[in-house]
Amino acid sequence: MNTARAELIHRTAVSDANVAGNVHGGWILKLLDDAAVIAATRHSRTRVVTAAVDGVRFRNAVQTGDVLRFRASV
Fold this sequence. Notes:
Elements: E1 5-11, H1 25-44, E2 67-73
Antiparallel strand pairs: 1-2
């Protein structure tokens, strides 16, 4: 079976962050889910939904202007 992959790159902006300049965790989770949906859609060739996430651990704060890269594969 072929592996479906996706890579999403996003430069954070002021609109992604709070007044302290930290990017909202929910926004990061949305981007993570977007990358997963792209890979899953490529794999299944149909609509997909996220049924569950096992866990996410934020190691460092993400600041406005940081570049995030998400990789997903099925």
